[in-house]
Every structure is written in structure tokens, then in C-alpha cells.
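Review box. Two proteins, two foldings.
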Amino acid sequence: MGFSLAIDTAEISDRLSHLAQLVCEANDEALIRSALNDVGHIQQWIDNCKVALTRKLQILAATTPRIQPQQVLASAANISRIDAFREVSRAKTLGAFPQLEQAFEQGRIGSAHIDAVARATHQLTEDEKAKLASRSDWLNNVATHATPDNFARAVKSEVARIHADGGVTRLERQRRDASLRHWIDRESGMFHIAGRLDPENGLRVIGKLDNTVERLFHAALPDTCPTDDRKHGHLNALAFLELIDAASLGAPLTAGAMISSPHARAEVSVVIDLHTLRSGLHEQSIVRTGHDTELPLETIRRMACEAEIIPVVLNSHGVVIDIGRASRLATRYQRKAIEAMYSHCAIPECKVPIAQCQPHHIAYWRDDGPTDMNNLVPLCTHHHRNVHEGNWRLKLSMPNRVLTVTYPDDHVSTACPTSSKPQERIPYE
């Protein structure tokens, strides 16, 4: 079991010198980007070194049981146990996928690509891992042509294809792995509650929390609510207590919130194209829950039997056709239309999931801006604040919903919704 460092150390030395100079002198975006490019190449070399050294630790551990690679990595590199586990997982994953290892050594893919494979294979059986390993050539081709995020989606799709039961067995394992624990923090005296749920029940719980937050605090926030980044967590805690009280009084807990928007009324919302729902996964399948989690297709079909199915019609540009309503807040159907087009915040390069975004009026409601689809885009909390308080100017152009953002320094950037912009092609064989 070996690992070579294919990256030229002389190049790394030159980049270190260049980076040291830029860190001191960089005063514009171009120079900062150049410095970050150096950081990326140096980080790639460091990641290669870590994998090579982790491999050596694994070899030593095979003959010397007292040596525990994860423990040595955590203490020697001054990293957390979770980060040390990730380093060991990367080394094991590369060993199982030789083509990816070669691309990693050559700097053509990064550690984020390897982590995507490690996450996807974590709960696979040995037979399933062997099936995925037999697709190493395809994985290598995709990894070298796709961003880590798009590669992760491709790997998830391939894992779904490998599952003989469409992921149902994995969901059953996740259900059995559900847990909830609580303890009291000795320093603060506060109760801590931590748990994990399978994707289906997790989406249901989040939906109920979001709906309760909207019902309780839409008109006004409580006096106890922080104004910083703790706000959302505080409201969730109060909503959780409300749900517990309602359950103890025997009140029905049937009113849920759409996962991808805290103001909607559906308990769980899944965006799926009709062909996939009817006939199964295909190369152009669209299946989104608003969160970075997945449900088996058969589970979605079962949910569809019990749920309200709302058809969304898109034009040739992938834009939802909708008629505005004379109300300040976006309607339930407008919110569903927005989530059909967007998977994350509309601001360029922002990847905050749609579940954490709210519809924003391009032309403000107070300035007679209409509540219709041609005037609404989803924004995360951070960018919503930038627009309202940071003097960011937004313009939405039809028919393909090109959003133009003009920043206070007059720099301009543009973006399109997920479904209407050209997607990065992922080769499939």
C-alpha cells in the first residue's frame, strides 16, 4: 500500500514565497484571488502529505497495535478527532478507488471529492462498495470534470442506482439508528438535547418546527429573542416547547410547514419531476427536499399517495408561470413555485439551501412592489440583511429570471435559478 507525492515541491516553494508576498501586498480582488489560488495548491500538497503519512501510520499499526492512526493524527497535527477520522477515511477511500487516487496525487481533484465518496459509501455493504468500485473509471471522469458539490450529487445518484431496493434498506437502517439524548451542562446549567433522525422523520420534525415558528412569531418576535445569529435557534427552541406542551394537552399536531420555506403550510415538501415519480430515476431526474438529504423514490411515492400534489408548469426557460396575488406575503403556491426553480439562495455563488431562505420583493412592498413571481426571489438571512441594510441593489430580468446584483462598490454579478441556468454536465456511462 503506497502513496506518492506527484506535486512538484519546487512549485510549492515558489507558491509559498509568492503567497507570503501577496498576503502583505494584496489590496484588490484580483490579487486576493491569486493568493487564494496559491493557498488552494498548497493545501492540495498538504492533503497529499497527510494521506501519505496516514498510510504509513496504517502500515505501522498493522504490526504495532499500540499505534492508533486516528489518535496519532489528532495529537500530532493538533486537529479534532473528527478531522482525524476524516483523514483516515480519505486514505481508506483512496485505497479502494485507484483511479481517484491517481487523480488526487496529480492534483486534478481535491480532498472534497474524496470526502464525497467516503460519505456515500459509509453505509454501503461490502458487495455494494465493490459495485461502486467497479465504476472507478466513471467516478474519475466525473470527479475531474465536476465541482465537489456536483460530484457529490453524481455519486449519490450512482449509489441510488446500485441499491437493489432503491435505498429502502438504507432508510430502514437509518430509522434503527435514530437516537435522542440529553444532559445538563455543568458550567451554564442549561439542558442540552441532541438527536438524529432518519431523513423522512427528520423532514417531518423540521416541518413542524418551521410551521410552529411561523404561527407563533409571524406578527411579532418575543422579548427574549436575540437579534444576532442565535435568533433562529432561539425561535426553534420556543417552537419545540410549544409542540411538547400541545402534545401533553392532547392537541393535534397536524399543521406542518413546507420544509423549503418556514411560512408554508405543507408538512413535508418534495420537488420531483413527473417522469421520475411515474417511471423511476433517469439522467435528468429532479428530486429535492430543500435540505442536503435524500429519500428513497418508493418512500416519496408513498408520501405522494397521502399528500396533496401541486403541479408546477414551467416555460421553455424553466421559469414557473404564475399570476401574482394582491397580498404582502407570498402565497403557498408562490412559495412552492419558487422552490421548484431554486435549490438555494438566489445570490450568486451562495449555496444556503432553500429551506433557510425567504421570498424577497425586488421592488419593495412598501414602494408598491407587487407580490407576484416576477418580483420575488429567495434570499438567505445574511443576504436578505445585505439587501435591506447594506445597499445591495437587485434587478430581475425575464424571461429566464436573470438576477443582477449591484454591490455598494458598483461591482455587478448575475445568476439564474437552478432549473433555468445551464447545468454543469456530468458524464454518465
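Next protein.
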Amino acid sequence: MGTQRLGIVMHGVTGRMGMNQHLIRSIRAIREQGGVKLANGDRVMPDPILVGRGAERMEALAKAHGGLRWSTDLDRALADPQDTVFFDAATTQMRPALVKKAIAAGKHVYCEKPSATNLAEAMEIYEAARKAGVKHGVVQDKLWLPGLLKLKMLIDSGYFGRILSVRGEFGYWVFEGDLQPAQRPSWNYRREDGGGIILDMLCHWRYVVDSLFGEVKSVSCLGATHIPQRRDENGKPYAATADDAAYATFVTDQGVIAHFNSSWCVRVRRDDLLTLQVDGTHGSAVAGLRECRTQPRVNTPKPVWNPDLPQPIDFFAGWQEVPDSVAFDNAFKAQWELFIRHVVEDAPFPWNLREGAKGVQLVEAGLQSWRERRWVDLGALPA
């Protein structure tokens, strides 16, 4: 049994998501476990080079995580034939140009979602990767969350009977920056910089709904900018030009109606920052990021509407938790391992740039629905 090296150009890992989820909890964790095991028993050890602006910052980041290679010259990094994979987690607006440059350099590409800010560019980079014959993928991390894996197990077992509807609640209160510092970067709230919760979250809901409840065929979406002014990282006021909340309804080819509220202007009183309630003819379930609870048909209480009396039923008590039957890994790390196997041994990896484009397609349809105040149907993308 041997170990082979896989050189990865990692761009945009100085930000919160890129550093924490992709560098520390994925690539560093994979290195510390001895690499990724292949089907033949061999292992692949990722050897990243961190690329970004600011030599001091890049050097410090590389040193802090095991003495990794680093550079401020992306063109030079892409020119090195020893590094065969390019990963990008920088801003969405920059992504299509960077991915095309990496493809032209012959690199396999893996990137954060959304893969572009518009469908035309998302399809353009997919076509470029397909024609170049390189491997390609888009991060779709929520599919490997423990709560959603448990939900999928319930679906596969036939637990729900016929699934009727899904209610998704996502979000939390992002401080405006005056009373307390904001938890998200200011560009998230400027449309001209690629911000907006519709662009950020409808890409997620596309692959979640498609994978679990049937392919999304139409959407009705209402966006809002509830907080019109925020303060940036330096405490300076700025106009919020992007949507900070979205109220969307999807209909799938299986006839499932899925409604998702996404908001950075909501105070949480639910089990988790993301919850999905799935109701079926034989039972219901509520999944969060890690937990999932069920209520089958035979255990469903029989409430009676009477606003003149205190409610005698404890509605939270009638749900049973799905146990952790396996050890769950970090969701980003799980998909990284699958992509590495895809690159090295051609293992299946369906979450490619075309799938990423489907998420951008839903974003465009959602924005069109909001703008025109109507339902918008989604067409099939080219293969």
C-alpha cells in the first residue's frame, strides 16, 4: 500500500468559510488522518498551496496550519504542473474568471457555491470544463449534514408514505454593526458586490430539494431588504442594497410543495439555525443540522381548536429522536474526500459544475419571480 501526493491550489481560504471549513476542518483534517483512502487501499495525501493577497497574512496562515506552501502569485501557482487541482472560495463575482483560468491551465476545479452570479457564466464554466476534459465539482455541503442524512434515510425507508410538503426555516439575526459587530461581512448586503440572501441561499435549497424531494420545476419568491442601513467592518454606515430575507415556495416534479424562509433578520426560536419539517401521509419529521425527530401517523396527537382554554398538549413532547447509528464526519470534509477520489481514481461525483449551474438557475428564477411578482417555471439545462 502506498501514498501519493495531490497538489491543490487553494484560493480564497483567508475568509471565514474558506479557512474554517475548507482549510482547517477539511484539508488539514485529511492530512492529519493520513490522507484519503482509495478503493485499492492506497492513500492520497493533499498537498495544498495557499494563494491570496498579502504576503505576511499568507505566510502566517500557512505556518499556523502545518508549515504549508503559500504564494501571492496565482498565475505562477496555476503554471506549476505538480499542482493539478484548483479550489476557489473567494468572492462569487471573481469565480468564473478564476475557474476559466484554472481550466485553461489544465487543472481540475472545485469551487464554492454559487459558481457564478448569473446562469450564463455558470454554464460557461461548465462547458469550458466539459470541453477541456477536466474533473469539476461544486460544494454542496448540506447534503452531508447529519440531520439531512437521517432525513434521507427516512425517505429511503418509505417512512413518510407520500411526501406532501416541506417547510424550511433558515437564518438568524445578523447585527447591524452599531450595537454589536456584525457576524457577516458587509459585502453580503451590497448587491453590487455580489451580496444578497437569494443568491447565497437559493443555490443551497436547489440541491437540497432536488436530492431529497424531487427536481424543482417552478418557484414563487418574495425578497426583502428589511434593514436598509448597516455598518461595515470599520464602523462606517453604508446603504444595504441587497436582499436580507427571502420567502420562497418551490414545486417539484414529485408534486411536493417546499416553502423556505431564509433570513438574516430573524431571531431564532426553533431547534436549530436550519430546520426542515417534512410532512407525509404516514409520518412527519423535523431535521436540523445534526438532529432529526419523527412523529409517525399512529403517534400523532388529536388537537381540538379552542382558544378559550390553555393548550393541554405538549406538541414538542410527541417526537422521537433518530439515533446516531454511524459516526458523522464534517460535511465539507466528506465532500472533499469524494472529490479527491473522483480526481485520483475516477470515483463517481455527480455534484459538478452543471449541478452548480442549476442552483444559479433557481436564483435567477427567484429574482425574476420577485421582480415580476409571479410564478416562474424552470427549464432543463443542456447536458
